[in-house]
Design a protein that fits this description.
By secondary structure, this protein is an alpha+beta fold. The protein has helices at residues 7-14, 41-44, 58-69, 86-102, 107-114, 165-168, 174-192, 210-216, and strands at residues 26-28, 36-38, 55-57, 76-81, 136-143, 146-147, 196-197, 204-206.
Length: 226
């Protein structure tokens, strides 16, 4: 499988991968580990259809607990989003398109750029957006003073949001080196337990869905959940 395709091409490809549904339920993330905190970002932003909780499929949640246990004692995960129903995905997609329009981009430019950041909302459970499966998670790391510096905010749609941006940038300052190290830590503990990162977003990780299947050369096990 060619994983060096552009994001839009990748999305068209991974949504064609067949899914062998595992039947795993969604589970709440609030009380599964003392090292996992939940901050439902879109609920805090009052987006329609959002919940005061974050959810993942059971298997993905168990792996998240294992990843949290790999963090240093003074650090915890902060989960920002997990399972996302179709209606919420649609709202986010349209909001992102409107944001690009306000920047003066034409529709063809938007079509090229938007899939880097927000997947097309599909009602078809066999061709779902990654978050609709319950196998995608957005998260960061925090210490006793707050969220670690990751170089950009969550959902900041810039080149610096790319996971490896600071790995490839020359002449890093001490602050930028620490940002690089923070991203490295997040990526290491998540990939060690089987998640795959979406390269355009340092905060996004997948397990069990079609994008994960494309990157790991395994079977997709999570269909969309309405």
């Amino acid at each position: 499988m060619d994983t060096n395709l552009q994001p839009f091409q990748n999305e068209a490809f991974f949504r064609s991968i067949p899914i062998y549904e595992s039947g795993e339920p969604l589970v709440s993330l609030s009380n599964i580990s003392s090292k996992i905190k939940v901050f439902p970002y879109y609920f805090q932003e009052k987006l329609p259809g959002t919940f005061k909780e974050c959810y993942l499929r059971e298997g993905a949640a168990k792996r998240l607990v294992k990843a949290a246990e790999k963090l240093p004692k003074n650090l915890d995960f902060v989960v920002l989003d997990g399972w996302r129903p179709y209606e919420v995905q649609k709202v986010l997609y349209e909001m992102t398109r409107d944001g690009f329009r306000k920047k003066g981009m034409d529709e063809s430019e938007i079509d090229r750029e938007i899939s880097k950041f927000v997947s097309y909302p599909s009602e078809n459970v066999d061709t779902p957006s990654p978050h609709m499966t319950g196998g995608s998670i957005d998260l960061t790391i925090a210490d006793q003073d707050g969220w670690l510096d990751m170089g950009t905010g969550f959902d900041e749609f810039t080149d610096k949001a790319k996971t490896d941006w600071y790995e490839e940038a020359p002449n890093l300052s001490e602050t930028e080196q620490q940002i690089r190290n923070n991203r490295r830590l997040l990526k290491q503990v998540m990939t060690d337990v089987g998640f795959h990162n979406f390269e355009e977003e340092w905060w996004h990780y997948d397990y069990g869905n079609q994008r994960w299947a494309m990157l790991s050369h395994q079977l997709a096990i999570y269909k969309g959940l309405r």
